[in-house]
């Protein structure tokens, strides 16, 4: 009996603060005080929590956003990838606060910046968090990461008793009936380098134990949690993993247009020998799945470009057709080479945009988060923030703007 | 009827009707209305009106490119005083096909007119014209044939692309038949990256044509300099892209996409400390570099080597920038400038640390 993942979705149509957290006919009321109290009580490393809400179209800027999490909950005790998961659509929890590692980002809810981030289209519960003095950066990161997950669970827990609007059952069988369809594997590269560049797979740091083959449903059932501070534009937040667009699309055509034969999760180590070993192992796993073709996605930029090229080259040399997805760093004028590494075998690249492009962001009526820190973020620079509250930044500083899972529509071409 | 777009047309002595090679020394001159191919431009495109033609000789422009360009700019300004409300909107230069001298004049003039007078400009060249390499980044170029047989087609293309330029519409090499500028430009596709990736893979698997969204560039390969025979007398410098700067970051080097590098003293220092130096790099966790900056800029070890006589001496200055999302072009410039400074100071070897 194949296992099934059942997603029970509650649509959130409005969000307001109130005395109790309830969801009725899509109207979510949030008891901010109760949420803040719970977070403060659960972790003594937290000094203060402020809970804000903001909606699409509002004149709001969230700065120094760290992670984005879709509120979800499992109540039947099953592991990720099976059983029933409750989730809240059109809603996300965002963590923010003083910077940990330069690489938190901006979310604008309206204006020109909003077009570059998918989170401008969601109702947001923003957790602005300050930690106690003297905390080391790694503990600071862990504190914020845990608080985001707890806030998402807290919100979802209070809403599961209300009937879901929609139920989706996700079946996946790696040996589908129609064997004549192309066999496609997905290689999902996770930034996992330690030093504030970590990702967690089923609770374990992705530095160890990867590459491995994973059921695609585990990935989208919060099997992967982001814990890293790489540039905001191309870090895969927890929300991106939960809503991985390639997995969603590959599952929807599975057994009809192609057969999704599996997901290979792999890492992006720091040492050359480890990169070569990981890439070779990932290619072996794809070959073991009997794939005709594979799509490779990346997280971060710079040295991960080398991992992407090694995997792509290895796949092609093994006779497996590969498409690689990457963003570009072509300079603010677009006139420079875009990648840190290349290989002639990478003849099918999907570009998710030049992260160095600058964008002017007008002042907003409301700013959530520590605004002066903006000049220290990757993608910001001294002088980024103007006196009137407007700013000029590279797309790099906007959360999810050049997401390399292919979440958005931004691309780049020769002119 | 809407007002026509006012065009100024640049031609060499031959196409401008002055004569052949014997007139190649002709200095720039101004003619009202179209000349030669300009008449065809007018005829082909009712939206455009060639209000004037500037003609100069190929040799004159090749030998006096800067002065000739200045004189043409002066001619344009003299004939279009702002108080008369005469405003030119577009300069069309050529087509110059594969003619080298003519192409260079067209490129230089287009560049000067658009940057100094704010007038949109376009030329038409054969892709192998030497002016393409010189000016393609800044100047819009229609892809023309290699000789005058392609005149009509080139003029049609210039009119079509010129109109798009004036209207501020994006110019796309494939659709518009222009020479790629080598500039990457963002745009929003109709489909998501995930959808495009699956489509591309399905096409690739079925053997159908597919088009990559980023063609692989060819990277420079640097040949290492010959080994130093006597390290015991060599002056060695430290350079880093790891963002180690004196505490307070006096040059305000950015955490990513650095626009500058800094030059800092090492004289009198035996090692760096958390009190004297810090990392401003945004691409790695700076905790350990901040606790002991020698981990990225190994001054402590260099002083040991100096004491042991394994190197002649450590250069008393070091250079630092942040190598994080820094474009290759900018990095090359930093490299050239730092190398020139080091060579000038008699440094024979560099230990370059990256992160």
Structure description:
The complex is a heterodimer of chains A (about 425) and B (about 350). Chain A is of the alpha/beta class. Chain A contains 7 helices and 25 strands. In chain A, strands 5, 6, 9, 10, 11 and 23 form a 6-stranded mixed sheet that branches. A 6-stranded mixed sheet of chain A has the order 16-18-13-19-20-21, sandwiched between helices. In chain A, helix 7 (about 305-315) links the parallel strand 19 and strand 20 (about 320-330). The longest helix of chain A has 21 residues, at about 135-155. Chain B has 2 domains: about 5-175, Response regulator (Rossmann fold, 3-Layer(aba) Sandwich), CATH 3.40.50.2300; about 230-355, no CATH class. Helix content of chain B is about 35%, strand content about 20%. Chain B is built from 11 helices and 14 strands. Chain B has helices spanning about 35-45, 60-65, 65-80, 100-115, 130-135, 150-165, 175, 195-205, 285-290, 300-305, 330-345, and strands at about 5-10, 30, 50-55, 90-95, 120-125, 140-145, 185-190, 235-240, 245, 260-265, 275-280, 315, 315-320, 350-355. In chain B, strand 5 (about 120-125), helix 5 (about 130-135) and strand 6 (about 140-145) form a beta-alpha-beta unit. Chain B is elongated, with a radius of gyration of 28 Å. At the A-B interface, helix 5, strand 19, strand 20, strand 21 and strand 25 of A face strand 7, helix 8 and helix 11 of B.
